[in-house]
Amino acid sequence: MHLQEELYQSLYELADQGNIALDQGRYEEAIVLWQQALDVLPAPVNQWQAAFWLYASMGEALYQLERYDEATAVLEQAAHNPEGKENPYPYYMLGKCAWRSGQDKAAKYLLKAYDLDGEGIFIADPVDGEACLAYLYDLGAL
Question: Where does the record place its TPR repeats (predicted)?
Fold first, then answer.
């Protein structure tokens, strides 16, 4: 499926503005922009590849704001998108949210990310990657 050019352009501009806001630490603004971009997509929203990246991006911003429950909700949307089923990112972020919240399900999500990408996604995260890998090793999961 392809979006009409006008819809695609609007979506792209909103998503790009959201990415700029995220890079500048303006997380709330980024979330609003990405939600507006989601609103451009025809229903059902989760059929579109763009929805995966928008949900994943919103999850990252919510994680940065330490709003782990809200991050989990949108990251689950990303994971359930056809594009997200084999992508380690939403599972890694779901694992980090659960890990930060002290929830046991952190291991399940982090292991799924590990199964999809090995240590790559952990190594790519200079803030939490090493600690998340250590968490899995300490549990005896790896």
Answer: 11-44
